[in-house]
Each structure stands twice: as structure tokens, then as C-alpha cells.
Amino acid sequence: MDKVALGVILSALIAFALSKTFSLGSRRKGLPPGPPTKWLIGNAHIFPKGNLHLAFAEWSKVYGDVISLQVFHQTIIVLNSPSAIREIIDKRNVASSNRPRTMIGERLVPNEANFGMSKLADEKWKACRKAANALLHSDNLKKFTNLQTAETHQLLWDFYHTPEDWFQNIHRFVVSFASIIIYGKRSPRVKSRDVAEFMAVHPQFMDAMNISAIVPVDIFPILDKVPEIFVKWKKQVKQVRKMHEALYGRLLGQVQDRLKLNIGNGCFMEDMILRGDKLGINDRDVLLNLGGVLLQGSDTTSVALQNIICCLVCYPDAQEKVYKEIEQVVGVDRPPHIDDLPNLPYTRAFIEESNRLRPLDPLALPHCMNQDEIVNGVLYPKGSVIFMNIWGLMHDERYFEDPYEFKPERFLSNSFGVRQDADDDPARRPNLMFGGGRRVCPGMPFAQLALGINTASLIWAFSFSPYRDPKSGKEILPDMSHYSVGVIASPKPVKLQITPRSQKHVDVIEKCFQETGGIFAPFEHELSNEDQQFNAKYRDLM
Ligand code: HEM
Question: In sequence order, what are the beta bridge partners of 51?
Fold first, then answer.
């Protein structure tokens, strides 16, 4: 090669390297617009540490319904309208239904064994998803109506006897009912082992998932190489993984033992164990996590219910309207039943409005593109992380009048709560807070039923008001602006005044609770001594 040709090649290589270097951190051509980037870091300097949904919503007012951000080499795309969600998440679901790979996630649950966190292309995901869909389908849930009703009656009893534990009572209800259908066993007390362990492990699991917001190990994989003795987070993740495996391993083990002893009760995990080979769910880690992710997923229902109760306290006029409606339709001789729900439009509007004002999943769960897609000339590149800004959609002033105010009536005049004078987004659909595409939440029917019947029953039985500080005499309202930061935004536990509506209501609650014994019996084989003593003391098992 002569010197001239060599010079040309070298210059081209240098120019290419320089252009690559200078473009580091900048927004690629064709990407959705977004805030200006800086060399190398992109938008890292302005990327919020928490409450991402608020910043994303503000940027979307400037840059449009679809925005992009660059954090070093990682592209993040945020969808801020129903149309954007339909185009990318729903219509192009083959390309957009992966989850982003996170190093912390891999350390917590290796080998993609957790189908809620794994890639779409994965055969294990398909098998688990199919099984979960069948379990949580509304037709299948009908089989559990009696059990759901009985657990709701215990929830009322718990609220009456231990109103100070209202927050935990809700968790007990959800863990107990979900584990009946998943593991064929229930928990009669907040202190029952499964509830107590779940309440210890689950928040730590969620906190561990959030570590990457503080230690950006996915952006700088080198951080993952720092030895464990120098970094606290690795020990934390290891410990959480151990607890997670111990809890769900024990629950799985109990189902296996029941099968060995021939005393199965036909629960979901028994079926998975027996038909695992046929279904492609035969790996122990996958089985363990299948039960685990369903129990974890169900806990979102607790958060939604806790949020609804905070709204009842903060908006007493609306609470009064809900009560009047329930009183008229149901009376005082019995608690509401699932069949009453279609006749309680204001109650349903109250639930919708609580979910709109404070969606528990402000950014749903992230998706990740597994191939390039171009939609209306805009590039959604392979590897980009996609967020649906659920909070942003629900507070969009173009469609929601006074979006920061609590007005259940908006859902009576329009089924989506949209203002009368708005030309609504044609892609708006129900249940946006449950995500979309192939990853749409499989637990939606479970959650909707549990929220409907429990909200109606609790309001039928009790009035909810703020706690009054005995010293100052001041009312302490739940702080509706102070929710936990992370994937799930939960209200903080707060003291409330929970008062039965009348002695008649109390008598009905006691009677209904006594009647639960026979219904629960097949799911109470593995109760601890304390649980059995509780049943013997408070419940007529005859
Ligand atoms: C109000 C209650 C609930 C809300 C708001 C909610 C919301 C969500 C959202 C936004 C996603 C991600 C969807 C997406 O990626 O597009 C999701 C996924 C999931 N949810 Fe729920 N959920 C709720 C209740 C439940 C319940 C009761 C269960 C189980 C009993 C459950 C199990 C799951 C599972 C297993 C996934 C992962 C699905 C997958 O990745 O394929 N969820 N949920």
C-alpha cells in the first residue's frame, strides 16, 4: 500500500473515531425529541433522582407526547399519551415487550427465572405467562368467589377488632387470599408466618430492585466488578436473594409435601408441579419464582386499597356519597356482595378516581425494545428502555379538568373521566394502569374484584376519619403527597379513626366471621399452633 492510500485510510479512521467520540452522549438522529444533551453524559445531569414521572410529564409539555432522554449510552423513551402507548406497546408488542436487563435483577433472581422480569423471547416466560393467565382469568376466579367473600368478611372483622392495624390487615387479606389460590393455604392472622415473612421480604426485594437508581451499575457495568467487601449493596442483594428463595422455596416445599402425602387440595402450584414437564415449567427455580411473582404481584392490590382508604379520609364528602349509595342498594342486614357492584356506580367512580389521582405504578413497569422500529418517522431503537407515564396520562390537563382535585363525578359523566369539552385521545382504553401489549398485567381481574368488593364492604361497615392527636386535639390527615419512591408508590402507614356504622353492622360482621370456618377449613392444614389457637378462640369451627 502506498503512503497516500495509508494516509487516507488513517485520516478516515481518525475522523470516524473523533465523530464517535464527539457524539457520545448526544441524541441519535431520528429519536424522539427531549431536553438538550451534554457531551458524554447526555441528560444524566438533569435526570431526576426520584419521582421520574413528574419530570417526564413536565418535559412532555415542552417536547411532545413521546420524548427521549440519553443517560450516557442508554436511550430512554417515555410515552405520555394513550396513542403513543397504543402505537408502541400494544401494536408493536413483538418488538417492545422485553424487560430491560438489570444487573441487580440478575443477581436477585438469576437465569431469568422470574417471568415478570425476564425477556419475552424466553420460552419460560411464555409457559409461565400462559399458566398465570389461566389462573387469573375472570372465569377461573369465579371458582373462588366464596373464599374471596369469606376473606372479605374476615377483613371487616379484623378492621373492627384491630383498627389500629388497618394497614397490615389489608396485607393479610391479600396475602391470604392470593396464597389460597396459588399455594392452597391461608393465613388467619397478620402474625401468621406467611404474612409476616412476606411483609419482611417483599419490601426489601423492592428496595433492592431500586438500588440501580442509586448505584448505576447498568450504565457503568464496571461497578459490578467492585469486590463485595468494598460495597454494601452486594451484601444487601445477596441477603435479599437468600430470604426470597427461602420464603418461596418453603411455600413450594409445602405444596410438594402435600402431594407426597396425597392430601392435595387442587391449588395452582400443585397443578404446576404435576403438569410441569408438559407445560415446560419443570425447573425448580422457575416453579419457585412462578408462585413468588404471583404473590408479589398481588400485593399491588394492598397498595391500591390503602390508597383508596387514604382518599376516603381526605375527601369526606365523597365518602358520604359512597356510603349513601351502598346503604340504599345493600341495606344494613348484610355486607355488599360481588353481584351488588354493577349497581354501585358512584363507588366504582370513587375507586377509579383514587387510582387516577394516585396511580400506584406511576411508570408501570419498563419495557425494552428488542429490535429497531420506526413509527411515524420516529426511531425506537433496539435496547432503548420504554416507560409508560401512567401518572402523566392521568394528570394531563388537556383531558382532565382540575387533575389534582379529587372528583369521582368525572367518571360518571365520562367512562374515562375525561372532560366534556375535550377532543379525547382516540386510543384511550380502560385499564391503562395495568400496562399493555403482551406484558399487560395478568392480575387485573383479581385486582379489580378485590378492590370493588373490599372498598364497598369497608365503607358499608365503617366510617373513616382522620386521627385526632390526643395532646393537640388536631386532626392528622394522610399526606397525599408523600408516597414511597420506587416502582410502586405506596402511601405511608398512618393512624386513622375507624368507627363502625352501628351496632347492627357490628352484629352482622361478627355473624359473617363465624360463618367463614367451614369455607376456610380445606386451606388450613398447615396452621401454626398460634393460628389454631386464634381460630379456636375467635371462630366457631363446628
Ligand atoms: C391494582 C393492582 C395492580 C396493578 C395496578 C398492576 C399493574 C401492573 C403493571 C403496570 C404491570 C406491567 C405491565 C406491562 O409491562 O405493560 C404488571 C405486571 C404484572 N402483574 Fe400486575 N398489577 C396489579 C395487580 C396484580 C395482581 C393482583 C397480580 C397477581 C395476582 C399481578 C401480577 C402481575 C404479574 C405476574 C406481572 C408481570 C407480567 C409479565 O411481565 O408478563 N398484578 N402489573
Answer: none
Q: How far is the CA of 402 from the centre of ligand 1 (A)?
A: 28
The answer to whether the CB of 120 is under 6 A from ligand 1 is no
pTM score: 0.95
Q: How far is the CA of 445 from the centre of ligand 1 (A)?
A: 10
Q: How many CB atoms lie within 10 A of CB 537?
A: 7
Q: How far is CA 165 from CA 496, 497, 532, in A?
A: 10, 11, 21
Task: Scan for cell 415473612, then name that residue.
Answer: 197
Nearest atom in ligand 1 to the alpha carbon of residue 435 is 16
Domains and CATH numbers, the chain: 25-416+449-539 (1.10.630.10)
List, for residues 27-79, the tens digit of each pLDDT value.
Answer: 999 999 999 999 999 999 999 988 999 999 999 999 999 999 999 999 999 99
Would you tell me the crossing angle of helices 284-314 and 166-183 to the nearest 10 degrees? 150
What is the DSSP code (8-state) at residue 165? Answer: G
Helix (H) or strand (E) holding 386: strand 385-388
Which residues touch 346 (CB under 8 Å, ≥6 apart)?
321, 322, 325, 408, 412
For cell 401512567, the residue is: 390
**Distance from chain centroid for Cα 498:** 26
Nearest to 506 by CA among 494, 498, 495: 498
3-state secondary structure of 160: helix
> Looking at residue 409, what DSSP letter applies?
T
Q: Give the three cell numbers for residue 434.
A: 395495568
